[in-house]
Amino acid sequence: MTMFGNDDRTGDDGQSGFRPVAELLLALRFHTRLPIPFLRTLDPPPLAQAMRFFPVAGAVVGALIGAMLIAAALLNLPPALAAIVAVAGGMFLTGARHEDGLADMADGFGGGETREQRLDIMADSRLGTYGTSALALSLMARVVILENLLALRPLAVIVLLAGAAAFSRALMVDLLWATRPARLESTMLDHGRPGRAVTLFALFTGGAMVTAAGAIMIAPEAGMLALVAALATTAGLRALSMRLIGGQNDNVAGAAQVLSEVAMLTAFVASIG
After folding, report:
1. Cβ neighbours of residue 243 closer than 8 Å, sequence gap 6 or more
2. Which of 43, 63, 92, 153 can bridge 162 by disulfide, Cβ–Cβ 3.0-4.6 Å?
3. What does pTM read for this prediction?
4. Rounded to 5 degrees, what are φ and ψ at 219?
5. Which residues contact 3 (CB under 8 A, 6 or more apart)?
6. Class of residue 88 by CB neighbours under 10 A (exposed 0-12, middle 13-18, buried 19+)
């Protein structure tokens, strides 16, 4: 199952100029199920160009999940149940787009014996044992993390979730730019790869958000620890993907978002005590 829709425009840097409003609206449409007004009348830019605003869209997603977590806690739900409500709400908000990529990647990497077998399995929308296990573990990890974050004040919870969601989506852009596609017929190539300027903008924006969130809401070193955890996770996934399928694809990008976000939130929780 692919994450990216078809677009016959290349998305090279500067092709349509810097259009922050249109690019942000397109990024929000990609990452959420929110009704996005005026998008068609604004003549949307190529998705590859709008990727510079993926971190901002991610911050919106993270903040909304944080708000759901706080709202559930204020209803006097047990912390674990409040966390489950927030995780479920987040999956509905995003359409579980990136979780689907994680599951497909786990099935392919775990069940295939050759590069082509792995890619074929990843293209199959059916869920296997490896994918089910990866999805279940990631969801359990999120629930435990959110439950522990409730020890902080509400504003801190929202800001930390927004920062982690922002940088995890910036790392998706970096992966798509810096790593060659595993297959030339990748759906991603239908709309172009993000350029250098788009990628650097996304990395700077997302990195600043998560570093500031950790430093302000927990401790000065918390933001840096989360940043390092996310970079290490993405680097490891990139290396594994190069070895097993010779590059990246849509599923690997989705997995990078999920795993790097979990790594950052784990770093935050570890810094609380």
Report:
1. none
2. 63
3. 0.92
4. -160, 155
5. 97, 98, 100, 101, 187, 250, 251, 253, 254
6. middle
